[in-house]
Specification:
The longest helix has 20 residues. With about 170 residues, the protein is of the alpha+beta class.
Length: about 170
């Protein structure tokens, strides 16, 4: 992992991941998702090697930079909620971040460490491949309950109209 996996303020941003409201928001191909997931994990490894927990890992916090060869590289940004863990076995307790990406221990205000970033990276990986977050729902209370339980909704059920915002927009939903 390298510091170059983290965006700096002087770099030119090519694009960011589309927002939820953007209709072009579709699942990535497996190859594109693998490249992005690798970048997510490299950036987090660089942060963790310096004792930094990001605490708000989500697609919107990855910016795509155009490389000299024309390829795009995802870089981690927005360190506004980041915190430092000074001791090897140190923990944090503040709940912060975007609820759909929170680990159950952070959502429950239990002590946590770097693993909360790994959880969020897993949520991002799911989202890139499925096209939507595993825990999110139109109702924030439902999302909160799913995060607490660590109970994702199967993306195939969503596509078949059994839950989630997109299903609700099509007239289905919970």
């Amino acid at each position: 992992a390298e510091a170059s996996d983290v965006a700096s303020s002087h770099e030119r941003i090519d694009a960011s991941y589309p927002s939820r409201s953007n209709e072009s928001w579709k699942p990535f191909t497996e190859a594109a998702a693998a490249t992005t997931i690798r970048a997510v994990l490299r950036a987090l490894a660089a942060c963790h090697a310096h004792g930094v927990v990001h605490r708000d890992v989500k697609p919107a916090n990855f910016l795509y930079m155009r490389e000299p060869d024309g390829s795009r590289r995802a870089k981690l940004s927005d360190f506004g909620l980041a915190a430092r863990i000074k001791e090897r076995d140190g923990v944090l307790t503040e709940r912060c971040g975007t609820y759909a990406y929170l680990s159950p221990e952070m959502a429950r205000r239990r002590p946590y460490d770097f693993k909360v970033d790994a959880w969020a990276a897993g949520v991002v990986a799911y989202m890139l491949l499925a096209g939507e977050p595993p825990f999110a729902d139109w109702d924030a209370g439902v999302t909160r309950a799913r995060v607490w339980a660590g109970a994702a909704v199967d993306a195939r059920r969503r596509r078949d109209g059994e839950g989630g915002e997109r299903a609700r927009e099509r007239g289905g939903g919970e």
